[in-house]
Amino acid sequence: MLVNNRYVPRHKKSFMICHWLNGISFLMLFLTALPLYADTFLFMYNIFGAKTLQYLHRFFAVIFIATPIFGLLSAREGYMTLFKQVASFGRDDLIFLLKFPLTLIGIEPSMPKQGFYNGGEKINILLQAVIWLVLVVSGLILWLGNGVIDNSIRAWMIPLHSIAAGIGFAAALAHIYLAVVQNPDSLHGMTDGSIHADYACHHHGAWVDELIENGTVTKKEIDAARKAA
Q1: In sequence order, what are the beta bridge partners of 9?
Q2: Beta bridge partners of 173
Q3: In whole angstroms, what is the distance from residue 62 CA to residue 56 CA?
Q4: Cα(210)–Cα(14) distance, integer angstroms
Q5: Please, how many CA atoms are within 13 Å of residue 167, restricted to the half-sphere of its CB?
Q6: Which helix (H) or strand (E) is 186 found in, with range?
Q7: pLDDT in tens, 75-128
Q8: What domains sit in the chain, N to C, each tagged with a CATH number?
Q9: Rounded Cα gap, residues 126 and 9, in angstroms
Q10: Is 147 helix (H, G, I), strand (E, B) or coil?
């Protein structure tokens, strides 16, 4: 059944909470570390104090580490869907990736129907998972490894941690741009938990077909919502 006769249910509240916790904690980790990398941000030490930023960095590190663990317990269905989708990357996803850049310059090429997550989202999920793992492992070694792990290994963790954070921040900016500017309907999916039927058919057609097939929504409902768009 559609929400308000227009929107297709997509994410549950617990999954959305995990998404925002992950994003906010990563952003705060990035901000609290900035004075370490550029003198331009040393004013933050004067305002908040170096110790305060260090404690805040560790506080948000705990949230960043705990969020997916919490998600597996409270939003298991959403995470299982995520894992299955990433593992099912195929030919249609590759075609989507090759053609998607054209949409950024106003061209709408013919795309193969996409599932719950499209090819671009699957790559982003995989990238974020790798970045999460690198940040967590390197961060824990730097935080708790003094006197336990060889200093030569800890020294390598500093550039590794920094590179992962930089790539993660760049990916986050691209993700925000696509969600807010390019496809604001997707942002609605992470705030309200549902996306417009027309957007769902256009960007996740194979998933909509599955919903119709299993009786979650009807084709009549979808068609009516698209006509009213």
Answers
A1: 194
A2: none
A3: 10
A4: 23
A5: 15
A6: helix 184-191
A7: 999 999 999 999 999 999 999 999 999 988 888 889 999 999 999 999 999 999
A8: 8-194 (1.20.950.20)
A9: 24
A10: coil
